[in-house]
Amino acid sequence: MNKYYVYMIKGDSFIKKIASSNNKKDTLDNFKLYLKNKEKKSIDLKENNKCILLKIEKINWDPSKTQPIKIIHGPIKISVNYLIITPRYSLTVNKNEKRNNHLFLTDDFIKKEMKKSNDFPGFKPNDKKKVEKYLKKIVEYSILDKLEKKLLAPKTIDQIKI
C-alpha cells in the first residue's frame, strides 16, 4: 500500500484513481502526465472536475497514555487534500476548502483488515482490493461532505460503510 493517492472526480459520480506512490512529487508528476496524455482534451475546466490527494501516514500514538479530553484516533491517519486543476493544467491546493480533512484507522479496523509488515507504515492489507474500496469510499464521502464535522467527535474509519 502506498502513502499517496490521487483521485479524480468528474461530475458527481465518476471517481477514478489516477496515481499512487510513496513520494508526493512522483504522485503529482504521474497525475500531470495523465492529464497531458489522456484527459487534456476531455477536461473542461468550467465543469465540475475535482481532484483529491489522500496521504496515508503513521502517527505517534500510545493508547495507554491518558488524555484530559477523550479523543478516539488510531495509529494511521488518512489526510484528505482538495486540489484544483488550473487553466495551465497544473495542480494547486484549494485553500478555501472547509470540509473535514482527516480520518483515522482504528486498532479494531487494523486487526480485522490488515496484518503487520514492513511495506506500509507498520501494516500491510490482507485484501488490497477491499482497502482500495475503502479509499474510494473515503473520497466519495469527502466530496459529498458526509465525513464527521464536529470538533471533538471521533473521525474514524468506522463511519465508512462498504
Mind explaining what this structure looks like?
- It is a single chain.
- It contains three helices and eight strands.
- The chain is an alpha+beta fold and 162 residues long.
- Strands 1, 2, 3, 4, 5 and 6 form a six-stranded antiparallel beta sheet that branches. A two-stranded antiparallel sheet has the order 7-8.
- It is globular.
What are the salient characteristics of this protein?
single chain; 162 residues; alpha+beta; 6-stranded antiparallel β-sheet; two-stranded antiparallel ribbon; 3 helices; 24% helix
SSE layout:
Blueprint: E1 4-10, E2 14-21, H1 24-39, E3 49-58, E4 76-85, E5 91-93, E6 102-105, H2 107-113, E7 114-116, E8 123-125, H3 128-143
Antiparallel strand pairs: 1-2, 1-3, 3-4, 4-5, 4-6, 7-8
What is the compact description of this entry?
The protein has 3 helices and 8 strands.
Q: Approximately how much beta-strand content do the residues carry?
A: 25-35%
Number of domains: 1
Number of strands: 8
By oligomeric state, this entry counts as single chain
**Main pleated sheet:** 6 strands, antiparallel
Provide the helix percentage.
Answer: 10-25%
Q: Write the H/E string, N to C.
A: EEHEEEEHEEH
Output the structural class.
alpha+beta
pLDDT < 50 runs, ≥5 residues:
none
Mean pLDDT, rounded to whole units? 78
From the N-terminal CA to the C-terminal CA, the straight-line distance is 19 Å
Global morphology: globular
| Rg on CA atoms, Å | 17 Å
Give the number of helices: 3
